[in-house]
Write a structure and sequence with these properties.
Keywords: Hydrolase, Metal-binding, Transferase, Zinc. The chain is α+β, with helices and mostly antiparallel strands and 273 residues long. It contains seven helices and 15 strands.
Length: 273
């Protein structure tokens, strides 16, 4: 597992992060957006990509255009998730392009997207939750996964890998995975009832990756997502974790906890070339 392969980029006024391991594959274009470089104001300042937020719709559309031009992925090719902190996964195709941003969408209650088609950009959304991008180097299949703490408990990242294996014949040992900016252990505080759920699902690794302080529990969800990926056969050296905490760096990232619940959304997007 590595945590030093992320670089900050800026284009068209928008700031975003790229993972160098994914870049080196030559197979995909991808990005993790920030909150910098858009037109939204107030709590949503400024590159808000949350289509379901209470921001002005035109601002969000303008932000999509700015972000798309910055990263070189057309908005028309994006397929947006519709997240509910569950473990539902959908395979999408070119017929789904534009859904959720430019077109009405039948993609409801979906927290992970998979495609084997080039020119289909998979977009999932965050403001503390964990973004995971996956590439199968041999079968050329990609996924974008939204893994909040509930999704982590449901092992949605692992289930996405297993669906890629089942539906496309992928082998986890051929996959590379990039875990993007999210709330880190330093600020992911939960009560005992949530901590107990993590222990029930992950066992000793949950206890090993939790710090207890003043009656509260601080869980390392990145480590648990890595554990879930490794458990289904993804090599540890193929998993890259961004060390940046969205709460700590609230000037760069939207943070649901840091912003008191009223905030914008960032996007993790990936497209086969």
């Amino acid at each position: 597992m590595t945590n030093n392969f992320y670089k900050i980029c800026a284009a068209n006024g928008a700031w975003f992060y790229k993972n160098e391991i994914l870049e080196r594959t030559g197979l995909v274009n991808h990005a993790f957006s920030t909150r910098i470089g858009g037109v939204s104001e107030g709590a949503y300042s400024s590159l808000n990509l949350g289509v379901n937020s209470k921001d002005e719709k035109q601002n969000v559309l303008s932000n999509f255009q700015l972000f798309s031009e910055a990263i070189g992925i057309q908005t028309e090719k994006m397929v947006l998730s519709n997240q509910v902190h569950d473990d539902k996964i959908r395979i999408v195709t070119k017929a789904d392009c534009g859904k959720g941003v430019l077109l009405n969408s039948d993609i409801k209650g979906i927290d992970a997207l998979i495609t084997a088609e080039s020119g289909v950009a998979l977009a999932t959304f965050y403001a503390d939750c964990t973004p995971v991008l996956i590439v199968d180097l041999q079968k050329k299949v990609i996924a974008s996964v939204h893994s909040g703490w509930r999704g982590t408990l449901l092992k949605i990242t692992q289930k996405t890998v297993l669906k890629m294996t089942r539906e496309f014949g992928c082998d986890p040992k051929d996959m590379v995975c990039a875990i993007g900016p999210s709330i880190k252990q330093c600020h992911f505080e939960v009560g005992k009832e949530v901590y107990d759920q993590f222990v029930n699902v992950f066992g000793q690794p949950a206890a090993d990756n939790t710090i207890q302080k003043n009656g509260k529990y601080y869980v390392n969800t990145d480590a648990l997502n890595v554990d879930a990926l490794a458990a289904c056969g993804v090599p540890l050296e193929n998993i890259s974790v961004c060390p940046l905490c969205t709460f700590c760096h609230n000037d760069v990232f939207y943070s649901h906890r840091g912003d008191g619940g009223i905030t914008g959304r960032m996007c993790a997007v990936i497209e086969l070339r």
